């Protein structure tokens, strides 16, 4: 059957429409039939400029809508809690009375200063055996929230043309960013530490969106990182499907552009692209974690504006 769509529809909207149409009778019928998402936009300076023109308070002033009350007393497992966005998340979790279960390779004085409920060290994301120790090392029982945040971004912008590809680094990024959260999540689940109602967040990146590459990488580059985050997105969707019947919602989050060591190489564009301090980024992420539920399971959300990112 041929379906004609109004020309005004964007490609992204059109593909979502055709999914709805085929989904109606097919065996791939989706629970998202009714919703046509308003997508976030790939051009980062334009996204930030638009938010300013619209005086978008969700984007420009997260405090105007952030309600952290859901965190009080909750056990929150968090990878990469020792520095960067993870440390900022830990600080905000601590400020809101959550019980932090930090899953790290090694702690840091800043993390220790927060007095986490548990600090589990030696959790090397690339190691099957290290991740398997989670079951024994975590003492306080199931967690209410799991935030898979640890990640790695190789410094040089990889290009074919200037011979800057680094294949071993590419595999390392895929191992840390895509397999790492799967190792952690599966071990926690097997150990009975993730149960019905637990919210799972996969921090990936807008860099994992294939359809945004034409805008964000007009000349290619950053092969390993973007491939790793794309694989992480696929992992997140598959986990969300496996956990659907168990009522464990999983959301895939782009944390927003944060001024951390990882993005220091983009320092020149921080201000025009609306990069924020990690403390603001943490609230944006925890706002979206607060919205995780079975209706939104499997979605890929931009924590900057709360909108979906196309795959
Ligand atoms: N910053 C941004 O603007 C931005 C944008 C999009 C997505 N993200 C994503 O957000 C997450 C946090 O980013 P960030 O900016 O906070 O990065 P960061 O400052 O570089 O911190 C990375 C964290 O991941 C941990 N980690 C790295 N390799 C690991 C490994 N092999 N095993 C276990 N843990 C490992 C680090 O622990 P160690 O101290 O042990 O190395 C550290 O805690 C990442 O997944 C990143 O891809 C960030
Ligand atoms: C923007 O919105 C905030 C409330 O969210 C309001 O206080 C402020 O006056 C608005 N600014 C402009 C320029 O409209
Ligand atoms: C790849 O990265 C590693 C670690 O940074 C470095 O030691 C190695 O020389 C790099 N290889 C290439 C081909 O750039
Ligand atoms: C954001 O990142 C920059 C660069 O790493 C760092 O100097 C700054 O302290 C960070 N901000 C917060 C609030 O952590």
UniProtKB/TrEMBL annotation:
InterPro entries associated with the record: NAD(P)-bd_dom_sf, SDR_enzymes, SDR_fam
Entry keyword set: Signal
SUPFAM superfamilies: NAD(P)-binding Rossmann-fold domains
Matching Gene3D superfamilies: NAD(P)-binding Rossmann-like Domain (3.40.50.720)
GO-annotated molecular function: oxidoreductase activity, acting on the CH-OH group of donors, NAD or NADP as acceptor
Pfam families listed in its UniProt record: adh_short (PF00106)
Signal peptide segment: 1-16
Protein name: Uncharacterized protein
């Amino acid at each position: 059957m041929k379906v004609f769509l109004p020309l005004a529809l964007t490609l992204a909207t059109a593909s979502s429409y055709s999914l709805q149409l085929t989904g109606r009778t097919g065996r791939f019928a989706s629970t998202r039939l009714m919703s046509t998402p308003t997508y976030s936009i790939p051009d980062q300076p334009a996204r930030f400029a638009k938010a300013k023109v619209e005086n978008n308070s969700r984007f420009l002033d997260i405090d105007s809508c952030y309600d952290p009350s859901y965190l009080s007393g909750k056990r929150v497992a968090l990878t990469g809690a020792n520095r960067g966005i993870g440390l900022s998340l830990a600080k905000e979790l601590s400020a809101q009375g959550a019980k932090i279960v930090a899953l790290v390779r090694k702690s840091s004085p800043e993390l220790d200063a927060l007095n986490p409920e548990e600090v589990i060290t030696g959790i090397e994301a690339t190691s099957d055996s290290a991740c398997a120790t989670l079951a024994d090392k975590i003492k306080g029982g199931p967690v209410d929230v799991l935030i898979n945040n640890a990640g790695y971004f190789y410094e040089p912008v990889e290009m074919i043309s200037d011979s800057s590809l680094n294949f071993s680094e590419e595999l390392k990024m895929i191992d840390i960013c895509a397999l790492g959260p799967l190792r952690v999540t599966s071990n926690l689940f097997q150990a009975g530490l993730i149960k019905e109602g637990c919210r799972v967040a996969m921090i990936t990146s807008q860099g994992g969106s294939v359809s945004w590459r034409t805008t964000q990488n007009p000349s290619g580059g950053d092969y390993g990182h973007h491939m790793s985050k794309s694989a992480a997105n696929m992992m997140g969707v598959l986990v969300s499907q496996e956990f659907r019947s168990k009522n464990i919602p999983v959301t895939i989050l782009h944390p927003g552009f944060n001024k951390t060591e990882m993005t220091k190489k983009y320092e020149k564009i921080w201000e025009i692209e609306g990069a924020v301090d990690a403390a603001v980024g943490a609230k944006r992420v925890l706002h979206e974690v607060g919205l995780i539920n079975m209706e939104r399971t499997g979605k890929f959300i931009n924590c900057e504006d709360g909108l979906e990112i196309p795959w």
